[in-house]
């Protein structure tokens, strides 16, 4: 887009403030429908897409909701800096991580036990909220940011078994839990709801490769795939209907171990692989540039028929055709 954005004269961008030009384009012609300039005040991820052409914008401790016109409305304000946002597949629930240090007790004689408890709990707060009403379903303190995969009923928990075995447990918001099945991994798997009834677990193989396992909430395994040991730091992007998913990785020159750590000179490129969620078949492989984290350079259309990538200084749109239908949910999965 033509024009210049303001930068700090010293080049330091003090405080992490940055100005971002937002543009809404119509496809397939690429005509500009709306544009605006946003100011955000740190370097954390700031944008998440919603169904129906809407999106969430984060700045510091606030979340705003916008649409195709780029008109914004305030959605939530948090007591501390908001670090991350995740959704259930239907996007009715939010999982948030926010930095909220425990306030010091004014009464020194009564504060010792309280300070010790606060230190043990940590200064990050995890919440599960209803997006439309703000209803609080869960709140907890943690020492570090928590990835919590949820569907409309509850959240996933990975439980260590023997050897490389991990059991996936669904903890219900209403109380109680249910074992869903197991996956193999040398590390704690990264579990993600693709739909309310479909899970993708990203685990570790014995030689540094990633293992992808797609399974239903009834424990039925649909497919398994793996990435090379030279493809690291996987970032998952899921289409809004769940029928396609994209895995972006950094591609490096060698496998990582204690004798061969990674340096900047070892990074060759970033690339993305797009899978059909129902079968694990690969629909697209492409490089990405510039390298971005948090899935910020890959998007899948609501129908799953198009994928948009940032590559070679341009937005590239790929037409993939209709994805295969997801398997019907069994009685245990409804």
Present the secondary structure layout.
Layout: E1 18-26, E2 31-40, E3 47-49, E4 55-59, E5 62-66, E6 72-77, E7 81-87, E8 93-99, H1 112-121, E9 124-130, E10 136-142, E11 154-160, E12 165-172, E13 177-184, E14 190-195, E15 198-204, E16 210-216, E17 221-226, E18 231-238, E19 244-252, E20 267-276, E21 282-288, E22 298-300, E23 306-311, E24 314-319
Can you summarize this structure?
This protein has 334 residues and is an all-beta fold. The protein has one helix spanning 112-121; strands spanning 18-26, 31-40, 47-49, 55-59, 62-66, 72-77, 81-87, 93-99, 124-130, 136-142, 154-160, 165-172, 177-184, 190-195, 198-204, 210-216, 221-226, 231-238, 244-252, 267-276, 282-288, 298-300, 306-311, 314-319. Helices cover 3% and strands 49% of the residues.
Features:
mainly beta, 334 residues, single chain, 4-stranded antiparallel beta sheet, 1 helix, 49% strand
Order of helices and strands: EEEEEEEEHEEEEEEEEEEEEEEEE
Number of strands: 24
* Rg calculated over all Cα atoms: 21 Å
Sheet-strand content, in percent, reads over 45%
Q: Roughly what is the average pLDDT, rounded to an integer?
A: 87
Largest sheet: 4 strands, antiparallel
Poorly predicted regions are 108-120
Q: How many H/I helical runs?
A: 1
Report the end-to-end length measured between terminal Cα atoms. 47 Å
- If strands are numbered along the chain, what order do they take across the biggest sheet? 3-4-5-6
């Amino acid at each position: 887009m033509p024009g210049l954005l303001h930068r700090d004269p010293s080049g330091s961008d003090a405080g992490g403030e940055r100005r971002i030009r937002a543009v809404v384009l119509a496809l397939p012609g690429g005509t500009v429908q709306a544009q605006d300039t946003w100011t955000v005040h740190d370097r954390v991820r700031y944008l998440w897409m919603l169904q129906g052409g809407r999106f969430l914008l984060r700045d510091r401790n606030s979340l705003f909701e916008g649409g195709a016109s780029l008109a914004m409305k305030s959605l939530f304000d948090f007591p501390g800096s908001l670090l991350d946002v995740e959704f259930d597949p239907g996007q009715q629930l939010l999982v948030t991580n926010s930095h909220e240090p425990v306030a010091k007790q004014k009464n020194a004689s009564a504060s010792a036990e309280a300070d010790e408890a606060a230190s043990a709990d940590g200064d990050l707060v995890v919440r599960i909220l209803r997006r439309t009403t703000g209803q609080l379903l869960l709140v907890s303190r943690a020492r570090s940011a928590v990835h919590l995969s949820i569907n409309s009923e509850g959240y996933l928990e990975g439980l260590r078994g023997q050897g490389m075995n991990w059991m996936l447990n669904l903890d219900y918001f209403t109380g109680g839990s249910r074992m869903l099945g197991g996956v193999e991994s040398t590390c704690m798997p990264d579990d993600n709801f693709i739909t309310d009834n479909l899970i993708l677990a990203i685990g570790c193989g014995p030689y540094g490769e990633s293992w992808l396992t797609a399974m239903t909430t009834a424990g039925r395994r649909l497919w398994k795939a793996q990435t090379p040991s030279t493809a690291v730091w996987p970032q998952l992007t899921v289409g809004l209907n769940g029928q396609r998913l994209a895995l972006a990785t950094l591609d490096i020159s060698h496998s990582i171990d204690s004798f061969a750590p990674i340096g900047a000179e070892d990074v060759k490129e970033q690339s993305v692989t797009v899978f059909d969620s129902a079968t694990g078949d690969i629909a697209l492989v492409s490089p990405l540039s510039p390298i971005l984290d948090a899935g910020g350079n890959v998007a899948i259309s609501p129908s799953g028929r198009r994928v948009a990538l940032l590559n070679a200084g341009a937005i590239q749109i790929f037409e993939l055709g209709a994805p295969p239908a997801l398997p019907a949910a069994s009685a245990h999965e409804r």
